[in-house]
Design goal:
By secondary structure, the chain is mostly helical. The chain has five helices and no strands. The protein binds heme C (2 copies).
Length: about 180
């Protein structure tokens, strides 16, 4: 892994030093080209041969749906958890002073395999989750609508927000149980 990274860095450096626009690769990137740091617009990222163990921890740049369970867990730890902790504590430092994986997944998160939605957070009306939530607590609901949901979608790369066209997309109900 380290060697691959160094090799990649060296290649990048070489390319920069040569000050040339990278030409079409002479050799098509192999499917297991997982040591490469995915550059923006790098088509090689689409490669999915299941060689999960050879990817960077958490498989950055690989769609959430295409990550292995272990990669999802690592991604939660390195990307989702720290960002969400920051968001929740910025919203209400006292209420979310203690912020852990359990805050979303519940005490039994580990035992249930981190299945979401979690039974342990506030239940919402699936027919209109925002309406009921606004009546319950406007401030936290705005935070959920404006910060938590979009930021979560952004971090679960390749995930779409629920909409009329994509009823199965990500929504409040991806975290909250139905009342
Ligand atoms: C802000 C809420 C939040 C926090 C905090 C959080 N997660 Fe998650 N986690 C989710 C959501 C939402 C999903 C499901 C995403 C999806 O597939 O729709 C998920 C999915 C997962 C999965 C994949 C489960 C599966 O069925 O494939 C694992 C594993 C996981 N989380 C582990 C963790 C760990 C470990 C931590 C702490 C380091 C953590 N999560 C913190 C919200 C959270
Ligand atoms: C990534 C997961 C996630 C998503 C998406 C999400 N929430 Fe939450 N929500 C939480 C967590 C975690 C809490 C805090 C749970 C706690 O305090 O026990 C919370 C708290 C709340 C609360 C306060 C509950 C209470 O007991 O005070 C409301 C209301 C709420 N969410 C509504 C919504 C609505 C409406 C949406 C959709 C716009 C939404 N949430 C989207 C994870 C999520």
């Amino acid at each position: 892994m380290t060697n691959l990274r160094i090799a990649t860095a060296t290649l990048v450096l070489a390319a920069l030093t040569a000050c040339e626009k990278p030409a079409e690769p002479t050799v098509a990137p192999p499917a297991d080209d997982s040591g490469a740091v995915p550059a923006a617009g790098d088509d090689a990222v689409a490669a999915d041969d299941g060689a999960a163990e050879e990817r960077e921890p958490g498989a950055p740049g690989v769609a959430w749906a295409d990550k292995s369970f272990d990669e999802k867990k690592t991604w939660m730890g390195i990307e989702v958890y720290p960002a969400m902790k920051k968001d929740f504590q910025a919203h209400d430092g006292a209420a979310y002073k203690k912020f852990t994986c359990d805050t979303c997944h519940g005490d039994d998160g580990k035992a249930t395999g981190y299945k979401m939605p979690s039974d342990s957070i506030y239940p919402l009306n699936p027919a209109d989750p925002i309406k009921g939530a606004m009546e319950y607590d406007e401030a936290v609901t705005k935070f959920m609508v404006e910060t938590v949901t979009p930021n979560m979608i952004a971090m679960l790369e390749g995930t779409q927000a629920a909409s009329a066209d994509h009823p199965d997309g990500f929504s409040c109900m991806s975290c909250h149980p139905a009342e």
